[in-house]
């Protein structure tokens, strides 16, 4: 799941973040336009208000994010190319 977030960051990192963790979405990306980074959350656990992702990685403009589909890396995604 990928959210592109500018003014909706508090919702994307709040209610949507918990909802996606609660239903077991394996990986959740937030393209944080305001901070020019990509946030990658994984290892969902819990239910309701206790739902959360256990791992978080933050990639700045000089980084590349590994794109993993079906457990296999498909190649890197340049943060600079995504957030400008």
Task: Characterise the protein shown here.
By secondary structure, this protein is of the alpha+beta class. It has one domain (2-83). It has helices at 9-12, 15-22, 79-83; strands at 2-5, 27-32, 37-45, 52-59, 64-69, 72-78. The mean pLDDT is 94.
Largest sheet: 4 strands, mixed
The helix-and-strand class reads alpha+beta
Q: Report Rg.
A: 13 Å
Oligomer category? single chain
Strand content: over 45%
Overall 3D form: globular
String of helices and strands: EHHEEEEEH
Short description:
The protein is of the alpha+beta class. It has one domain (2-83). It has helices at 9-12, 15-22, 79-83; strands at 2-5, 27-32, 37-45, 52-59, 64-69, 72-78.
How are the SSEs placed, and which strands pair?
Elements: E1 2-5, H1 9-12, H2 15-22, E2 27-32, E3 37-45, E4 52-59, E5 64-69, E6 72-78, H3 79-83
Parallel strand pairs: 1-2
Antiparallel strand pairs: 2-3, 3-4, 5-6
């Amino acid at each position: 799941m990928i959210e592109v977030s500018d003014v909706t960051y508090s919702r994307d990192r709040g209610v949507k973040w918990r909802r996606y963790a609660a239903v077991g979405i394996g990986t959740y990306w937030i393209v944080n336009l305001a901070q020019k980074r990509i946030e990658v959350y994984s290892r969902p656990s819990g239910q309701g208000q206790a739902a959360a992702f256990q791992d978080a990685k933050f990639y700045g403009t000089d980084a590349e994010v590994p794109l993993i589909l079906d457990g296999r890396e498909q190649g890197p995604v340049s943060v600079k190319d995504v957030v400008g």
